[in-house]
């Protein structure tokens, strides 16, 4: 299937194991200058690299400590509570994505089964996350989209227009930026004769929220 084709496909660039063994078998070699060096064995397919790391470094059920020793791993020796969590994490380093989308023509692959499950909803149209507010029938494919939607039911609008006399507020900074364009395009009204004039509608008192990534 698609999984076997992915795992066995030749890699244009050699895959290198960067695992640093903390407890080498006896007799231990003298530590090299600057500390221990990574394994550095090279492989031509993802399947070979994954099998090597799992068997030679992660170990079997006899291992009680589940720590990633990949070179420059940001966890810095913090252990996982279970072996399967360590194996899932190692995919960040190896680039392994063993969960392909089964829908013909899609071709996307994922490192975690949970991500594949969410992705498949783009094909099936499944939306299992219903809005929790009474009377609202909106449904969503994932919980994060439902949370964003919930702002329409609340008064949580933390982004206020700071132009004098404008009381608009918004749930997202992008909506505030769109609103500010109205003030930039609209010239201030002409002051009545004999008056000292209106205060110009200048820029807001504080900086606008940063552009969303």
UniProtKB/TrEMBL annotation:
Gene3D superfamilies: Classic Zinc Finger. Residues 175-184 have a biased composition (Basic residues). Residues 71-98, 99-128, 129-158, 159-188 form the C2H2-type domain. It comes from the Eukaryota. Residues 25-35, 204-213 have a biased composition (Pro residues). Keywords: Developmental protein, DNA-binding, Metal-binding, Nucleus, Repeat, Zinc, Zinc-finger. GO terms for cellular component: nucleus. Residues 19-41, 172-213 are annotated as: Disordered. It is found in: Nucleus. GO terms for molecular function: DNA-binding transcription factor activity, RNA polymerase II-specific; RNA polymerase II cis-regulatory region sequence-specific DNA binding; zinc ion binding. Essential for neural crest development, converting cells from an epidermal fate to a neural crest cell fate. Binds to DNA. PANTHER family: TRANSCRIPTIONAL ACTIVATOR CUBITUS INTERRUPTUS (PTHR45718). Belongs to the GLI C2H2-type zinc-finger protein family. This is Zinc finger protein ZIC 5. The gene is Zic5.
């Amino acid at each position: 299937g698609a999984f076997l084709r992915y795992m066995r496909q030749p890699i244009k660039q050699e895959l290198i194991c960067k695992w640093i063994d903390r407890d080498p078998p006896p007799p231990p070699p003298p530590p090299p200058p600057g500390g221990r060096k990574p394994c550095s064995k090279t492989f031509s397919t993802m399947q070979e690299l994954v099998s090597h790391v799992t068997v030679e470094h992660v170990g079997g059920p006899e291992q009680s400590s589940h720590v990633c020793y990949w070179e420059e791993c940001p966890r810095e020796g913090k252990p996982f509570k279970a072996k399967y969590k360590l194996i899932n994490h190692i995919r960040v380093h190896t680039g392994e994505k063993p969960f392909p989308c089964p829908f013909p023509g899609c071709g996307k692959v994922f490192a975690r089964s949970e991500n594949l499950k969410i992705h498949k909803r783009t094909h099936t149209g499944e939306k299992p996350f219903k809005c929790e507010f009474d009377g609202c029938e909106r449904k969503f494919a994932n919980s994060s989209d439902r949370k964003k939607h919930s702002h329409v039911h609340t008064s949580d609008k933390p982004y206020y227009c700071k132009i004098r006399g404008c009381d608009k507020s918004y749930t997202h900074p992008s909506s505030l930026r769109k609103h500010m364009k109205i003030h930039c395009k609209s010239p201030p009204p002409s002051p009545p004769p004999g008056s000292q004039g209106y205060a110009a509608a200048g820029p807001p008192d504080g900086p606008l929220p940063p552009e969303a990534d």
